[in-house]
Structure formats: structure tokens, C-alpha cells
Design a protein that fits this description.
Length: 266
């Protein structure tokens, strides 16, 4: 039986030992411990996650490390990719350890949840906070807009307005390992044959991990039944919002117009 958990610093030598023992290439050498440690240290250019598999049925009841897995996530480029590695000690293969490690990698600590219609009661306050943050966090030039007032009551009022005009709203949220909501996106479906991409927000502490792209991609799958037969999805972004524009272009959006917004001081 195996358990999978994040690597703790004190277990790095055991982790590296299993990595070396599992290395089977005859045309080069495994990374030295100091090299592996540097390669797996997060910095401004790459985030890094490391897990280990422990065999709790080892002789003597010792939770022996029998495998490892790593994920490197670029932060400055190629942010739609994750570079993964999974290895298991030769003496412990064909026991499911590699599969358990891969499951941990694919989970990457975040989970997605979606709903169509009213926000679940247990998420209402957190979702209202994400709605409040959008204006403050989105690029807006020199307009000087302050955060909007959003609370549970306004979320429910917004949902009631959508229902009154027969507009269906699908929401997708990302939950962080801590349990907090890390971001959200919305697709609005009016009675016409067009769709509107509304809010997309990722909290600053969770940016650079591809959550915006993951949210929008998962949204396409969640709304496949509503998208069928529709002509296009319409969205708007500030010209300075290069990250979200890149996300949209990766999903197949193309620019069709410029819209100017002006502020006059009175």
C-alpha cells in the first residue's frame, strides 16, 4: 500500500536516491543531488512541485520512499505546458505507485467546480468577493475605478435579473489546495445565437499557473450542450491585458474590432 504526499526538505536525499536507482538511461547520467535540488527550486521563471510515494507495507513498518514525481510549470513563457516526470524504484514497480503519483501530478493541487444558474450557498460569499475584485484587478488605464460593491445580496439580484431576461449563466471556479476560491470565469447565453464571455479573474497569488486557460478550457466542455448551434463567443479585453489576450488567442479567439472608452473630468 502506498501513500502520496508532497516532498519535505528532510526527505530530499531519500527522494534523490530513489531517482538514481530508477534511472535506466545508458547514454547519460542522472542529475547529481545538488543539481536536482536546484532544478526543482521554484523561482520567477518556473514553479516546481514534487511528490513522493511511500510504501507503508515495507518491512519493519517504515514508510519507505519508493517513487517520486515532479512537475515544472513555466511562468514567463509556454504557460500552457507542464513538464512532468514520474519514477519508481525497480524493486517496487507494478504495484500502482506510478499511477498514484501520476494522479497527484494531474491534480496539481487545484480543483474546478461549475454551476449553471444560482451560485451554491456555501460559495456565495467567496464568489461575491471574486466579483468585487474584478474591476480593481483588471487593467483599466487611467480611469481610476474603485472596486465594485459585491455581496451575497447583489449576487442573488444579478441572478434574478438574468433569469428575468431569459439569459443562462454558466460559472466555473477554481479551488486552491487551501480550499479558497482562486479564480472564476463566466459564459452568458442569451436567447440569440451568440454567447458572451464575461468575467475571468485569477487572484494575484495564484497567477502564472495557467488557471485562466484551464478555467476557460473546462468551461467549453461544461457548456458543450449550450454552445451547440451558436455562431460565436464575444468578449472584450483592455489592449494592455496581454496575458488574457494570449489566453483567448490560444483558445481560437480573433480580434475583430477596437472599442474606445473616454473619461472626461467634470
Amino acid at each position: 500500500m502506498a501513500t502520496v504526499e508532497p516532498l519535505v526538505p528532510g526527505d530530499f536525499d531519500a527522494f534523490h536516491g530513489v531517482y538514481v536507482a530508477s534511472y535506466a538511461r545508458d547514454f547519460d547520467c542522472p542529475w547529481l543531488a545538488v543539481e536536482k535540488r536546484v532544478n526543482l527550486t521554484a523561482d520567477a521563471y518556473n514553479d516546481a512541485f514534487v511528490w513522493v510515494a511511500r510504501d507503508v507495507s515495507s518491512p519493519g513498518g517504515v514508510d519507505e520512499i519508493v517513487g517520486g514525481a515532479t512537475a515544472i510549470l513555466p511562468l514567463q513563457d509556454n504557460r500552457e505546458f507542464a513538464f512532468l516526470d514520474v519514477f519508481v524504484h525497480p524493486d517496487h514497480r507494478r504495484m500502482g505507485h506510478g499511477s498514484a503519483l501520476m494522479d497527484a501530478l494531474l491534480a496539481d493541487g487545484y480543483t474546478l467546480q461549475t454551476w449553471r444558474g444560482p451560485c451554491p450557498d456555501d460559495l456565495l460569499d467567496e464568489y461575491a468577493e471574486l466579483r468585487r475584485m474584478l474591476v480593481a484587478e483588471a487593467p483599466k488605464g487611467e480611469a481610476g475605478l474603485e472596486p465594485e460593491h459585491w455581496d451575497a445580496a447583489r449576487v442573488r439580484k444579478d441572478e434574478a435579473d438574468l433569469a428575468e431576461v431569459a439569459r443562462v449563466m454558466q460559472v466555473m471556479v477554481a479551488r486552491a489546495p487551501s480550499g479558497d476560491l482562486a479564480g472564476h470565469t463566466q459564459l452568458a447565453f442569451p436567447s440569440s445565437d451568440e454567447v458572451y464571455q464575461w468575467d475571468t479573474l485569477v487572484r494575484p497569488a495564484h497567477r502564472g499557473l495557467g488557471l485562466g486557460l484551464a478555467l476557460k478550457t473546462a468551461m467549453m466542455h461544461a457548456t458543450a450542450d449550450l454552445l451547440e448551434g451558436r455562431r460565436r463567443i464575444i468578449t472584450e479585453n483592455a489592449a494592455s491585458n496581454e496575458h488574457m489576450i494570449a489566453v483567448n488567442e490560444a483558445l481560437g479567439y480573433r480580434q475583430v474590432a477596437w472599442i474606445g472608452e473616454y473619461v472626461r473630468q467634470l
